[in-house]
């Protein structure tokens, strides 16, 4: 199933792969991903969900999604990431397996 609706994913999927600009950035069992997201993009997505009974402005992810034809040299999320390191700008992240998650992020290397 491919969807932008996190509520549907939470109800219907046992495992989730989160994609950013066409690439998987994190994959985990649904419950694990919702309870403890690892990738900064996954964290930001989950923070941007509306919650019943709360008022106010929804959280948003700063910056703009990159042009898929002019992607940055390193991590595609680096220009928008609050946790970016110097290596993120230079080199695409490698796979890391951690606590049942597969995550592509230099933070975990």
From TrEMBL:
Primary localisation category: membrane
Keywords, sorted A to Z: ATP-binding, Cell inner membrane, Cell membrane, Membrane, Nucleotide-binding, Translocase, Transport
Subcellular compartments: Membrane
GO biological process: peptide transport
Domain Oligopeptide/dipeptide ABC transporter C-terminal, residue spans: 25-88
Signal peptide extent: none
A single MF term (Gene Ontology): ATP binding
Any one GO CC term of the record: membrane
Database matches in Pfam families: oligo_HPY
InterPro entries assigned: ABC_Ni/Peptide_Import, Oligopep_ABC_C, P-loop_NTPase
Alphabetized NCBIfam families for the sequence: oligo_HPY
UniProt name for this protein: Oligopeptide/dipeptide ABC transporter C-terminal domain-containing protein
Organism: marine sediment metagenome
